[in-house]
């Protein structure tokens, strides 16, 4: 569990009706609720556990345009602007800081990929520059390493995962949205092929528009309506230290990444290291995902966890009258990998001796929900009128989350989309388009 998560109250009453019901209050659902409420629509935001308690509070907090896939770059620009603006609109700090991100490597292939990405950066006006070996050493002063070079993504930054989604959800409430925690959506009321309501464990809300922003659970929720959303999750691990000495805001090395939190503690993690748990859903969609996992993950362990039987990728059937899988697991809280923690702490201690004795306050696991091309789905669902999907952050959905929420809100409200939504359509997996695995 990530105990620093900001706790916000729920609204006492479930509304009888709403213009839009948003299912899932991670960074995407909270941002979509904010954007919809801001434009004057009545919104009910449903969360089966606590706002922000799954992926959105468990990540490193990097908000970046650096190294993104071209398809995401216009939307990531929108997201960075929203991060800049949202605190003023809400009247509260969401923890976002444009501190710049520093990457260093001694791997020639990785350096070549970063160099190649500079062409993309120029095309989309991303403020980033390659670092010489000397500059990389000055920016990422790791002991015993001879960096070949690095990258400084100048305008990128970090958010504060423990407060971002709850604070944005609270902001949505200031514009009239209602928030309902410990309130799972069990399913949809569909009449003549169109949404007529959402059935929750606490009653039904009449509505003609539903946004499924259920993170790792989005595919399972959609399946009973004949909606195929190829989604797979990998388990990642991170740790948090107590407040400690400052060695930099956001540093990447091949062995560890370090992100300084607002209270002066660090989040440590290792990029590309994950456990692929065997699950029924994973097996169903395996052929879609192999290219992506092979390209993106440097070190994959194969494992079995409770997700095989109870989590978002388990086999499950439920009726609207009985406890659903979403209620049976209020917060998806997988065990962290001891092996990964040992590797990351070695990476930190070897390279940053100033942090060698730091006390570890906490460690956690989290499932990262991915799409086959590592680009999110932000889309109307053709099979059910009024049903929309916004999920598949693929390990980098926090930084772009406000943008995903904004575009989803544009689609739901039938307003002019802030960017071309075509690359994010669900139908790309079925209309014969080639599935290009996104950039790292
Ligand atoms: C270790 C780690 C590091 C990461 N680092 C970064 C990073 O540095 N930068 C970055 O951009 N991204 C990063 N990510 C990815 C990022 O965290 C996710 O892409 C993003 O948080 C996804 O947001 P979400 O709102 O889609 O999902 P979530 O935050 O998982 O929210 C979905 C919510 O929906 C709720 N829900 C599901 N089903 C129902 C239902 N039926 N009824 C009601 N509620 C429901 C869930 O309880 C959950 O709270 C990282 C992820 C991990 C795990």
If you had to describe this structure to a student in words, what would you say it looks like?
This is FAD-binding oxidoreductase. It holds the Pfam family DAO. GO terms for molecular function: D-amino-acid dehydrogenase activity. InterPro entries: FAD-dep_OxRdtase (IPR006076), FAD/NAD-bd_sf (IPR036188). By secondary structure, the protein is of the alpha/beta class. It has 12 helices and 21 strands. It has an 8-stranded mixed beta sheet, with helices on both faces. The protein is globular. Flavin-adenine dinucleotide is lined by residues 23-29, 46-49, 53-56, 58-62, 184-185, 213-217, 221, 236, 238, 269, 326, 366, 368, 391, 393, 395-399, 401.
What small molecules does this complex bind? flavin-adenine dinucleotide
In terms of per-residue confidence, which ranges show pLDDT below 50 for 5 or more consecutive residues?
A: none
Distance between the termini: 27 Å
Overall pLDDT: 94
Biggest sheet statistics: 8 strands, mixed
Spatial strand arrangement across the major sheet: 5-6-4-14-15-16-13-19
Round the Cα radius of gyration to an integer and report it. Answer: 21 Å
Output the structural class. Answer: alpha/beta
Q: Share of helix among residues?
A: 25-40%
Which quaternary structure do these chains form?
A: single chain
Report the sheet-strand fraction: 15-25%
Tally of helical runs = 12
Question: What would you call the shape?
Answer: globular
Total E-strand runs: 21
Domain FAD dependent oxidoreductase: 19-411
GO molecular function: D-amino-acid dehydrogenase activity
GO biological process, one term: D-alanine catabolic process
Family: Belongs to the DadA oxidoreductase family.
